[in-house]
Amino acid sequence: MLQKIVDAEPDPSPGEEHLAALTAADRIPWAKARKAYFSKGINKNSLDAIEKVIHVELLLNILWLELYYLDLASFLSFALFVV
Questions:
Q1: Which residues have a Cβ under 8 Å from the Cβ of 79 and sit 6 or more positions away?
Q2: Hey, what's the torsion of the CAs at 6, 12, 13, 14, to 10 degrees?
Q3: C-alpha span between 62 and 78 (Å, rounded)
Q4: Residue 76: per-residue pLDDT
Q5: CA 36 from centre of chain
Q6: Which of 14, 54, 59, 74 could form a disulfide with 70 if both were Cys (CB 3.0 to 4.6 A apart)?
Q7: How many CB atoms lie within 10 A of CB 1?
């Protein structure tokens, strides 16, 4: 199953055709830009808020998948462990 996903070459969704251009740079330039432009002030506050929302959304998706694919007892066990 995993190999099928790795081998797949899906067409990008509308609006995502050039998304890789935003994320394809080496990590060092990204780290320098983050330090230069997102380490203080409103940019830091904004990035912190965005990252927190992403983490919460990811956690909610994980919990939903656990509930969907496992029984309720397993889901509650996992949810209590995470919280």
A1: 63, 66
A2: 170
A3: 10
A4: 72
A5: 23
A6: 74
A7: 5
Residue for token digits 């067409």?
Answer: 11
Q: Which residue has the tokens 């912190």?
A: 48
* Cα–Cα distance, 51 to 59 (Å, whole number): 12
pLDDT reading at 63 higher than 60 = yes
- Quick: pLDDT tens for 3-62: 776 677 777 777 777 766 656 667 788 888 889 999 999 999 998 998 888 887 877 777
- Per-residue HEC secondary structure of 39-64 comes to CCHHHHHHHHHHHHHHHHHHHHHHHH
Residue 17, both tokens: 């055709």
Q: Which residue has the higher pLDDT, 79 or 39?
A: 39
pTM for this model (two decimals): 0.46
What CA–CA distance (Å, rounded) separates 64 from 60? 6
